[in-house]
# Entry
Amino acid sequence: MRIAVAGAGAMGCRFGSMLHRSGQSVILIDRWRNHIEAIQTNGLRVIHEGGTSTYRLEAVTDFTTVGVADLVMVFTKAMHTQAVVEQALPIMGPHTQVLTLQNGLGNLEAVTSYVPRERVIVGVTNFGTELVAPGVIRALGSGETVMMSAHGQITEALQQICGMMNEAGLHVSIEPDVMSIVWKKVAFNAVYNPLAALTRLKASDIGGYERFDELVNGILDEIVTVAKAEQVDIEKEDIIAAIQGVLDPAMSGEHLTSMLQDVLAQRATEIAFLNGAIVDKAGKYGIAVPYNTLLTHLIRMLESTYEKR
Ligand code: NAD
# Structure
């Protein structure tokens, strides 16, 4: 299968390298020239528990130089989804499937504003990856991936892509109620990411705050109420259990959350697609979401004052 990774940062390189290793034809496409040139010159270097592996993958900065792909895997941050899908239109034919496993609310809407739902697959993954330097990623342990066709039917194309990704070790399952899993991950990230970014603490240290439960309950009660208004059934207890899991240093508790990494590198964050999206949706239903509103303001304030730090 010809797979194009649109936005080949940490996760695009992780998935791309695993699919390449399993024998698929993969091309990485990213607008970050230094990163692509490093991969072209030295190969993609993946640091993992057993050492460092180097993969010779095709990598380009320009979509117009790439032929039609069978699968386009969108792996930009959420605020770049709309733009990257528009740029990727020349590499999509009438049978090209487009997969988004990105975090946040709004990626599916951005993709389906260009691509018919029948050819869109949506899901989430909890594989963790860091981009260490241009052309170098660190693969953090393993993970699971769940996905489903955006139009709600299990198609042959979905099953084929799922099988191909499983051969690559991406641990994929098809989940008909995928949107509740997308929302659970949004809820998880809406707690864990802004708190870590604002306090500059590792996951394992955030949970040390004596009134952490009170704070988490406040944020999650609002998200669960908005989800229910959107006809998405999520339970607060499930999300709290997921949060407790990563607070354990033995799990990924020592990991810096992606929003904290963005803030430290003075980059834009995905706040508008996490707590910010909750605030926007709450507004439609007249639901008060003061915790999420405050977190959104504080992260936006941080993002808009990087030059003063
Ligand atoms: P990243 O910032 O490392 O990579 C995104 C890449 O997209 C960058 O290299 C950027 O140059 C590129 N890009 C942006 N706009 C582009 C455009 N128009 N054309 C071409 N390239 C473009 O991000 P990431 O950590 O790989 O995360 C990607 C998505 O996956 C996010 O939604 C994130 O929340 C989610 N996610 C990340 C992890 C993780 O561990 N890193 C885990 C699960 C989910």
